[in-house]
Amino acid sequence: MSRPIRENSLPDQMNLPAQPAPHVRPFFRALLYILIATGTVLLVGSLVGQLVLAGLIAQRYQRVVFYLIVNSALLVTSGLMLAAVDRRSFHALGLWFYPRWAREALIGVGIGGGLIAAVAGVMLAGHWLGYQGFNPDATPAGFLRVAGFLFLAAAFEEILFRGYAFQR
Questions:
Q1: 90 falls in which pLDDT band (50, 70, 90)?
Q2: What's residue 111's pLDDT?
């Protein structure tokens, strides 16, 4: 059983009610974020493409570099929107270390892995999925590269679609 987080274990900013800018309605805050985020993604994509064309980044690393830069830029954008428009702390995104954060992260990974296993099991049972064994050329380093890339892609999705946009 998980214990509830005591109020005094949270940063002071988390206990204060949100005080958004009175002149900006929620719809327009969301629209502003969507426009800035879309522009950020397009700008970073163009920048990384130009870096590849200039030979500064190998094409095989293009997507990794894109995700690293765009994730950082979207976090900065979310932080600025929270501070300037909503007048709230960056902690409102839930991206901070607090007591028991590692336990909650492991529970989340376990639930995600369990859901994937359940879907794969149903697909195997329905003969919609076949399994012929592991790739003999697979290496632990290759697995870690793929896992790292998928982590960056998942972080992009979470930041873009569940970050600032779902704060109200």
A1: confident
A2: 95
Instruction: Evaluate if residue 5 carries a pLDDT over 70.
Output: no
Identify the residue whose tokens are 């697995």. Answer: 143
**Token code pair at residue 47:** 């920048």
Q: CA 165, CA 153: separation in Å to the nearest integer?
A: 18
- The per-residue pLDDT for 16 is 47
* pLDDT at position 2 over 60: no
In contact, 98 and 5? CB cutoff 8 Å: yes
User: What number of H helices and E strands is found in the chain?
Assistant: 5, 0
Other CB atoms within 10 A of residue 134 CB: 7
Q: How far apart are CA 119 and CA 21, in angstroms?
A: 44
Cβ–Cβ under 8 Å, residues 138 and 6: no
Distance CA 147, CA 152 (A): 9
Nearest to residue 164, comparing CAs of 67, 20, 23?
Answer: 20
